[in-house]
Amino acid sequence: DLKHKLLSCNPARVIVTLDCCRNTSGRGKAYCVKLRHTEKITMSDLVKVAVIHGTCELHTTSDAHTFTQELFKVLNEEGGEIPILEIESKVNKSWHDRHIMQLCKDDIVKIGNNWNIMWPTSYTIKAKINTGPLSADPKQDKGIEDMKQIVEELMNQRMDQYANQIKKLEKEVSELSTQSRKTQTTSRMSEKAQKFAAKDPRRVLNNYVI
Question: How wide is the angle at C-alpha 74 spanned by C-alphas 20 and 47, nearest 5°?
Fold first, then answer.
């Protein structure tokens, strides 16, 4: 029912964590949920849904060590984000290391890298920065550094070429602008000389000065 309801909103992805107490002792009356939907979810929608169960089927859990609490603990240890496909493994390991008898389980349809995302902060896996040597082989490291230097030099040369081309274009534009202004000035002088000559044809037009 929950999946059908969420998918009716046509989301790109649906991530659900189910973390509820399965031991009703001391919590009042026992309740059950009646499921209404019996139709199957389409294949295109199945790959959108990721469900993480706080405990395995038919196993009990309590408020003392909830999945949400453990996920929050792991999330802080991982720096605030975690690959969604590693949540089950890391939470279960955290419980195991503290001798807590509980296991969570995910239900995710995987096709290639369709769930290669971080939770809850970003949509794609972020590459981790390597602060140490690039490899175990110093010669390989030097080769990589030499290649990086060559690429950087080529980029600098290309940028210098672009800068020279821009300067050349600016010079040509300036020359064209100057030539255009001279042409306009000569044209205005010619028009005035013609008007003056029309009034007094005896004057020498070649010596006309504005």
Answer: 65
